[in-house]
Amino acid sequence: MASKSSPPAASSSSSSPSASPKSVPKVTRIVFTALLLDILAFTIILPLFPRLLQFYRDSEHGDQTSLLAWSLSRLTEFQSAIGLNDAKTPSSSSIKRPPKMDIVLLGGALGSLFSVLQFIASPVIGKLSDVLGRRRVLLISMLGNLISCAVWLFSSSFDLFVLSRIIGGLSEGNVQLSIAMISDITTPATRSRGLAMVGIAFAIAFTIGPALGAYFANKDLVAAFPGLAQYGLHPFSGSALLALVLLTVESLYLYVKLPETNSESWRVAVQQTVQEETAADSGSSSSSTPVTNGSSTAVKSTPSSYSPAPTAGLDQEEIQALQQSYLSRLSFTHFAHLFLFSGMEFTLTFLTFHLFDFSHMQQGALLGYIGILSSLLQGGYVRRRAHIVGEKRMVLQGMVAAALGLGSIALVSGGGGATTYLLGDKFLLPAWMIDAIWWLDTQEWSRKTRMWGLYAGATGLAVTSATVVNCLTSLASLVCDMGSDDSLPSPTSSKPSTANKKQQPIGKGLALGRFRSWGQLGRAAGPIAACSLYWRVGPLICYGAASAAVFAITFLASRILPEVRKLPIRTRAASTKKGQ
Hints:
This protein is mainly alpha-helical. It has helices spanning 24-43, 49-59, 67-81, 90-94, 101-132, 134-153, 158-171, 174-185, 191-217, 221-224, 237-257, 264-284, 316-356, 360-389, 391-411, 420-426, 431-441, 447-480, 498-501, 508-537, 539-560, 572-579, and strands at residues 289-293, 296-300. The protein has a two-stranded antiparallel ribbon with strand order 1-2. A hairpin with a 2-residue loop joins strand 1 (289-293) and strand 2. The chain starts with 23 loop residues before the first helix and ends with a helix. Its main location: membrane.
């Protein structure tokens, strides 16, 4: 009989699920529900940025010493650097600028600031979760999020608003800790299925959250409680209050329901599940044969049903070196993908205004289409098929979809002001390429054709959103589990063995924190680069170049990303399924 496992690193509520294979779905639902509330609170502010920043601009008009005046001055210099303020450049004379361009860019700059802060904080939060426990660090990070929303609630000045964003950027840890917790309780065979719930939460929240934010922005708390205006209440405090309420509910829910997953008891439960899956798969394999040993009967699978990793005999130092190498490759791919994807995502609103004169409602319909389709794909395809298709293959599928989608948008962007003269003079492109760009740029596509091309591109971006980051995260999580079978915890032992201490040379929280931080750096830098290119050379060149760059990243990823079946990790169940 197995003895009780050692106590978790951090205590859990008495109503929290116990560490057992049967508790995995319940814990996953708890993590999903909390994450959904968290992202809903995060997305509430997204549609408010233009009006919110215009409110600060109007209220601080004439104060040249304010942080807002300094920020707008820097953005004016940036616009001059990329040619937006130069009436003599071909791009500025042919590309229609959206109104209040400085406000749009300031909103993008604040988004980049948040991502930069996440780049700094993510490894620290991950490391702390390895030492103090996921639950404890998550509750601490929730306290920071609550303070951030409380400051926003009373931020009648731009300075206080920026302070609230800084606090939020440094304390937000729900996403990466949710990934770590699901990784703690799932086997390699079920890892992608579990982590797909993170993507589904994102898709649902980004579809509903902005609409909630826009609705509650019309509820002016200053008019309802004029006496609180002296304390900093402002016209957008209604949305801030909603975000604060959601985060409060989330914090209480986590405190009551969430167990500690970074514990020996959960590691034993996961290993027990792996062994049960392996036995079940081996027993159902047509090529397996029973082997009697004393009073027990084991199942021995032939190589046709299970092909062990060729590196399974490596020692722990060599495995740690492989981990570092694989995580570096995954982090680079994560950075490169989000650098391109987030950049083009940021310019999509410029494109729809520029070529289609989209209203806010039409913009919302397009983004809603991407979000809903992404959610359906994550629930119906990624969650069900990732462990069968393979995480690496699904990453490549998503990247190809992004390249085709961006190419589709580029093809119908002719007439948008692609500056062929500038390209030929500065970039020394071949004459045939200049001729092709000129031909595409002079095509007068009908609005219907442009709409078909736009929504075809949006479909590709939805496929990308559903697959790439989710499966890259799954791969990074699986790499964290690298180790020989001998290093796995024994389900009949209450104390970790010496080999078990070497099971994870790299802490899972720290490794996933570093992985996420590089993605956040891509999110911070991508919009700046894409915006500069878009307004310099127009949408045709911008989207065409991005499509070519994604194809290049796809080819590189196909060469450097690891295959799950070839990793020296506890993947017997997953490998057996694939081998059948």
